[in-house]
Design brief:
Elements (H helix, E strand, L loop, with lengths): L1 H21 L8 E5 L8 E5 H9 L17 H4 L11 H15 L20 H19 L1 H5 L6 H5 L44 H6 L25 H18 L20 H21 L22 H5 L49
Antiparallel strand pairs: 1-2
Length: about 375
């Protein structure tokens, strides 16, 4: 019986191959290749032209609102209960509020966050969350400007894309439901989860590496730093988790491994592209945002907004990038909204120090393809 099944599979594969070669519609789509490393290192990004066009179309930034008219009145003195944008003029404040409505709740309007009969009222949890998200946006554009977001910056639209809840948020995966209360002993894998590219890799690497702001900075690294072993080293399960995180980042940015790594020396920082340093800081930025801005909102969110294990919605690389190496095709969003670049917190979370294994500053510019 087994032999018959094998033969049937071989015959089916042969017929499918013949069909691909002699029938119409089975042609390779036009490809778009961008070389980002020296020849011979296979460092190139390969996409279908159709896929590139679709991704770009899905990541179009909205036009900035018209500039606010000059004015001297400050929002904090004119309106009640303004806590984050007190030193912004009334005209600039109103302009930003209108923009935020378009970015976050175009269908619901102002009532999504505000009690329109009393705009100073804080009874809606959405308003409390929005206030904290404003501070988070300012924190990203100031603290993480040099290390990750650069001059492009972020606005509410970067994540929300016209939706009250961003499409690409995540919760800790509770794993499969099993009768009898038995715990699966599968290293948290073999479920083909979207978070790891539908592979059999561990399906909840995000909780392990992106949720905890105090996680060991060397937790992701599994490569040895010496030619000969000096310690017991890490188990293969850790390597699988690390690879799962790399798959997430690859799909989030719509790139392959060679966007950051040199194929001839994957772990070598000196032969990596500058994007690897940017990504290194990006991982730390995501931990910072989840740990210092989202996790503290646990008591603010209603139960229906929490995950299966009662955790808050969190961000990852896809939340901003949405399949593009540069969010929203690299549009400079924050230039038109300078009030989103000035932190209003008395004490803000600082990014972690760079460990010795990673460069303290970005490496030399990427090699020019030859």
């Amino acid at each position: 019986m087994k032999t018959i099944s094998v033969l049937a599979g071989v015959v089916a594969a042969a017929l499918l191959t013949v069909a691909m070669l002699v029938t119409s519609g089975w042609v390779r789509p036009p490809l778009e290749t961008l070389q980002n490393g020296y020849r011979g290192t296979a460092m190139a990004q390969v996409h279908t032209r159709k896929g590139v066009a679709e991704t770009r179309e899905a990541n179009v930034a909205p036009a900035a609102a018209d500039p606010a008219e000059p004015g001297d009145e400050l929002a904090g003195k004119t309106y009640e209960n303004v806590q984050v944008l007190k030193d912004v003029t009334v005209n600039e404040f109103n302009r930003l509020m209108v923009s935020m409505t378009e970015w976050v709740s175009p269908q619901q309007g102002c009532t999504y966050c505000h009690n329109t009969e009393n705009m100073a009222d804080d009874s809606l949890y959405q308003k409390k969350v929005a206030r904290r998200m404003l501070q988070m946006t300012q924190h990203i554009n100031s603290t993480w400007k040099e290390k990750h977001v650069g001059g492009t910056g972020v606005t509410c639209f970067t994540c929300h894309r016209g939706q009250p809840v961003p499409a690409n948020i995540w919760f800790t995966d509770p794993g499969p439901t099993r009768p009898g209360g038995f715990i699966a002993r599968n290293n948290g894998q073999n479920l083909a989860a979207p978070s790891v590219g539908l592979s059999s890799l561990p399906y909840d690497t995000l909780t392990a590496y992106l949720a905890d702001k105090d996680v060991d900075n060397n937790a992701i690294r599994v490569n040895a730093t010496t030619a000969l072993p000096t310690t017991k080293g890490k188990p293969i399960q850790d390597a699988e988790k690390t690879y799962g995180l790399m798959i997430h980042m690859s799909e989030a940015l719509g790139v392959n491994c060679t966007y950051c790594h040199n194929t001839r020396a994957i772990s070598n920082w000196s032969q990596s592209t500058p994007q690897r340093t940017t990504a290194w800081h990006g991982i730390r930025m995501v931990r910072d945002l989840n740990g210092n801005y989202l996790e503290p909102l646990l008591s603010t969110f209603p139960p229906n907004r929490l995950g299966a294990l009662g955790d808050v919605p969190k961000v990852n690389c896809t939340t901003c990038h949405n399949g593009e190496s540069k969010p929203l095709n690299g549009a400079h969003l924050v230039e038109a909204y300078p009030e989103l670049t000035k932190p209003t917190e008395t004490v803000s979370a600082a990014p972690p120090a760079v460990p010795t294994e990673a460069p303290a500053s970005p490496p030399a510019p990427a090699p020019t393809p030859q």
